[in-house]
Structures are given as structure tokens and as C-alpha cells.
Design a protein that fits this description.
Blueprint: E1 2-6, H1 11-24, E2 38-42, H2 48-57, E3 60-63, H3 74-93, E4 100-105, H4 118-137, E5 141-146, E6 148-150, H5 161-170, E7 183-188, H6 189-200, E8 206-210, E9 213-216, E10 222-223, E11 229-232, H7 233-249, E12 251-252, H8 260-269, H9 274-277, E13 283-286, E14 289-297, E15 302-308, E16 313-318, E17 324-330, E18 332-339, E19 345-351, E20 357-360, E21 364-370, E22 377-383, E23 395-396
Parallel strand pairs: 1-2, 1-3, 3-4, 4-5, 6-7, 12-14
Antiparallel strand pairs: 7-11, 8-9, 8-10, 13-14, 14-15, 15-22, 16-21, 16-23, 17-20, 17-22, 18-19, 18-21
Helix pairs in contact: 1-6, 2-3, 3-4, 5-7, 5-8, 7-8
């Protein structure tokens, strides 16, 4: 399949083209029935000759081209409607009835605050043009009215509040929020691209509109991406400040699968400046080695790394409720555990060349011994709760009493 993407250099276009190329190059194998042979990228610096050639060859067309911040509002109609007309005329010239997808906007409803939107009027004109094209040619057309989009590669200080907030907070720049209670309907770029791939496979989602809201309908006139998020500006900013503070607090907020928070965090990270990509961690160093907290979570404990110098024994304590995993990733050591009130010692020899996880059981005294006399022992540790200095739940006791050694 040869695919034409107009507006290929834009935010949506770059993400879509990257995914299509991954499929073409067999890097993405999640769509085994989809074969992408060519991705034709058309944008403002492309030529009319290229458009002509692409329209001749294309098996599917994504029309993402358009303007949303012109110097003159007349450009809305000239560029959005005008280019759509040029594109469809070129397809007609070559008798190419390949499916055509149109990137429209919820503003095309001309409802409420969009009632006088010149941008919305130009998008609505483009929609009607495409529907008429379908009637004239019997080509399959897919008209999508998108809400606010967000994700990596979105241009800040342009037409996305999320991109601007992510960029400014990541770079310690000020932001302005006039009304934190303002709610946005947001569509994540990866969810949008997933819908576009589904459209290539003939699995797009159809709908009709009830005001501004899409209502799924198998034979609906329009198409839509089913996964969107309704979030207030205040909620967005609060989350972004939490992400910004993570290198200092080490606390990773709750980011459930497919949640807005997870998608926003990925977006935020894409705006980090070079000097923030790496950040220092506090190493607690003594003669025995070092202990460094790596990451804390709100609901699932914390991760740390422990380095023991040659011949050193660490631990020698027990917990009431806390439990841990010890995972030796480098060196050669011995983990010992003994249940309180018992004389039986459990021995686990561990080695970085054979990585395994060992439970530190509640109510069991435990230690870790570096058996090497020359190499450090490196252990990644996970505890089921964050360390609380006011309630450490840690009590010193040797695994092997002195009289038993």
C-alpha cells in the first residue's frame, strides 16, 4: 500500500509518518496484515509536481494539511478549503478513487463559542467538499473532527495549551492560567495514530454528532477516535508540577495504564532540556559502601541500590510488615534469613551472572554478605513501602548470634 500524507511536517503528520515508516520497515509488527510500501510526505515545501505524482500512485490519502494561525483570517478558507479542493481535483485527474481521510476540527460544528470561527467555517467547507467528492466518485471518505491534541513533538506557544504548559514547566518558565476550572477535551497523539492505522485496515470508528459530542454509530457520517480525556487546566498544571518535582522527591505519581496522567507524563518528558535529562541522586556513603534511593511510588513502595564493599555484611535486621526483594546484579554474595524464634538459617548464594530475586520475609532477620575480597557487590532493592523515618519498622538483630558463629 502506498500512502500519501499531506501536512506531513506538522505535529500530527510527523507522528503518523513515523508510525507508518515503522510498519513499512517491519519495526512495528503489531499489524501483520498491513503492508506499507511507500509513505509519500507532502508539505508546504513540496512541489505541485510531487503532489501530482503522489495522487497518481496513492492507495490511501491522509489529508492533514491546513493552517490554524494565519496572519490573515482569509487564509483559513484559501488554505484549508483551497488545498482540499486542489487535492481532490488532482485525484480526480488520475481517476484515483483511493480512500481519503480528512483532518477536521470540532470547531466545524459552529456550535457555542465556535459559532463565529473562521477556522471552523473553513473546516466545515472542507468536510462538505469531501462528502460531495464521495458522492461524485464513490470513493470512501473519512471525516474526523478532532478536539485538542497533545503529545510529543507538538509546538509550544502556538495552538496547544498542553504543549505550552509542558514546555514552560519543564524549562522553568512561567505559565498563565486564567481559570483553572476550564475543562478541555483532549486526544493523545498515540491514540489518534492508532485510530489512523485502524482506518487503513478498514476498522475506523464511525459516529454522528449530538452537539459537540460524537455518538458512535456503525453507519455514522463522521469518524472519531474513541479514547479522549476531559481534564481541567488546574488538573493539568497540578500534574505537571508533580512531574517537575519528581527528581527532587523521587516520588512517581500514580500513572495507571491508558490514563491521562501516563500520557501527559510522556508528553512532559519530551520537552525536558538537556541539562534535566540526567539528575543526581543522593548517595549515602560509609566505610561499608553506599545506599541510594532510586525511585518512590505512591502506592507500590520504593526502589534503591545498595553497594557493599568486599567482605562487608549489611542488614542484620528484621521488619514487622515491610518486605523486600534483593536482586544482586553484580558481584558474588550470600543472603541469609532466619525466622524470629527459630534457629534455622536460610542461605541463598547470589551472583550477578545468574540474576534472581530473593524475598526478605516479614518477621525474618536478614543480611547480605559480599563474599568477594576484591569486587563490590551491587544489589537492586525493592521495598513494598516508602521508608518513613518516623515509623521505620526496622529492628537490629544478627541473623547468626555471636555464640553460634
Amino acid at each position: 500500500m502506498k500512502i500519501l500524507v499531506t501536512g506531513a511536517a506538522g505535529f500530527f503528520g510527523k507522528n503518523l509518518c513515523a508510525s507508518l515508516k515503522n510498519i513499512k520497515e517491519k519495526k512495528d509488527r503489531t499489524h501483520p496484515g498491513l503492508a506499507v510500501d511507500e509513505v509519500f510526505e507532502y508539505d508546504m515545501d513540496s512541489t505541485a509536481e510531487q503532489l501530482d505524482e503522489y495522487c497518481k500512485e496513492a492507495d490511501f490519502v491522509f489529508n492533514l494539511a491546513g493552517v490554524n494561525r494565519p496572519k490573515d483570517e482569509a487564509e483559513f478558507m484559501d488554505c484549508n478549503f483551497g488545498f482540499a479542493s486542489q487535492l481532490l481535483d488532482t485525484l480526480k485527474k488520475h481517476n484515483n478513487t483511493a480512500p481519503v481521510m480528512l483532518s477536521s476540527s470540532i470547531q466545524a460544528t459552529l456550535i457555542g463559542r465556535y459559532g463565529q470561527s473562521d477556522y471552523g467555517k473553513s473546516k466545515l467547507a472542507g468536510e462538505e467538499l469531501l462528502f460531495q467528492y464521495a458522492t461524485d466518485t464513490e470513493a470512501r471518505v473519512l471525516v474526523y473532527r478532532f478536539p485538542n491534541l497533545f503529545g510529543k513533538w507538538c509546538r509550544p506557544n502556538y495552538n496547544s495549551a498542553v504543549a505550552t504548559f509542558c514546555n514552560n514547566i519543564a524549562n522553568d518558565l512561567p505559565i498563565t492560567v486564567n481559570d483553572p476550572s476550564t475543562e478541555l477535551k483532549l486526544l493523545y497523539i498515540d491514540d489518534l495514530v492508532a485510530e489512523m492505522i485502524a482506518a487503513l485496515e478498514g476498522k475506523e470508528h464511525h459516529c454522528d454528532y449530538d452537539g459537540l459530542n460524537p455518538v458512535e454509530k456503525a453507519d455514522g457520517r463522521y469518524c472519531f477516535a474513541p479514547t479522549t480525556h476531559h481534564v481541567t487546566l488546574g488538573e493539568i498544571v497540578d500534574l505537571l508540577h508533580t512531574f517537575h518535582e519528581q527528581p527532587a522527591t523521587l516520588v512517581m505519581p500514580d500513572i495507571p495504564d491508558d490514563s491521562f496522567a501516563k500520557k501527559l507524563y510522556s508528553t512532559y518528558l519530551s520537552y525536558l532540556p538537556k541539562e534535566k535529562v540526567a539528575f543526581p541522586l543522593k548517595m549515602n556513603v560509609d566505610a561499608r559502601g553506599s545506599f541510594t534511593e532510586l525511585l518512590k511510588t505512591k502506592s507500590c513502595g520504593q526502589f534503591s541500590v545498595n553497594i557493599s564493599n568486599p567482605g562487608i555484611t549489611k542488614g542484620q535486621h528484621w521488619h514487622h510488615s515491610k518486605w523486600e526483594f534483593f536482586i544482586v546484579v553484580s558481584g558474588h554474595g550470600l543472603i541469609q534469613e532466619r525466622r524470629m524464634g527459630s534457629n534455622e538459617v536460610l542461605n541463598f548464594e547470589v551472583d550477578g551472572s545468574n540474576i534472581q530475586a530473593v524475598h526478605m520475609l516479614p518477621g525474618y532477620i536478614h543480611n547480605i554478605i559480599n563474599l568477594s575480597q576484591t569486587e563490590p557487590l551491587v544489589t537492586v532493592m525493592w521495598a513494598n513501602e516508602q521508608f518513613d523515618p518516623n515509623h521505620p519498622d526496622t529492628f537490629g538483630e544478627p541473623v547468626v548470634p555471636a555464640e553460634d558463629k
